[in-house]
Design a protein that fits this description.
Radius of gyration: 18 Å
Number of helices: 7
Shape: globular
Distance between the termini: 20 Å
CATH architecture: 3-Layer(aba) Sandwich
Order of helices and strands: HHEEHEHEHEHEEH
CATH class: Alpha Beta
Helix content: 40-55%
Number of strands: 7
CATH topology: Glycerol-3-phosphate (1)-acyltransferase
Number of domains: 1
Low-confidence stretches: none
Strand order of the largest sheet: 1-7-6-2-5-3-4
Mean pLDDT: 95
Amino acid sequence: MQKVLAYPLTVLFFVFFGLTLVIFHPIQWFCLKVFGYQAHKSSVDWLNFFLMRCTNLLGTRYRFDNPQKIGTNRPVIIAANHQSMYDIPPIIWHMRKHHPKFISKKELGKGIPSVSFNLRHGGAALIDRKNPEQALAEITRLAKYAEENKRSVAIFPEGTRSRTGAPKKFQMGGLKTLLEHMPNALVVPVTINNSWKMLRYGKFPMGIGTYMKFKVHPPIDPKEMDRETLLQQLEETVTKAIITK
């Protein structure tokens, strides 16, 4: 019965989701071209707020648990497990004071209203997974930018999303590059639960009634431990809070 109900709700969701992307595309362009970075950044924040509201049409609820007092006087590396594309809007909205930038595959940098524009002009790293040298150079560029401007880089170390919620082994290459070029950054582990249920039936229909939960763990200061210990602690912190049922 739930899956049957998911069909009309998914159509309604796609209509509003698509309209939101189309409406915010010229808003982003205007904010960036006329008022500059900060206005563009604010437009992206609100884009992601409304994308979350679109998912409410599917009965999606959110809990973003962030009791940490993380200042803006240092750059931040946000490291989270990855379950779906719907992981991204809550991070952008709820951690907006840290100006999160994402590492994304280059294919997403064109063809998607609002999303592609932001990836190209908002500071993201667009990487070619088939070209390690290009990927390394892009991540390095983003890391140096975040270090200099005290902003954050969000990374999903699993590389690809988990379709069942079960954690995948972290791939540490990108994290190591960020740590190398962001020597003053705090590492903030984030655990995401239930996002995969948005795609439990595939792309159509969408899953309905999902309760997405985000937990921000205490930040880790790389200056207080060696790199391998930090990476191990990071992975354990993120994955031990994942609920796999």
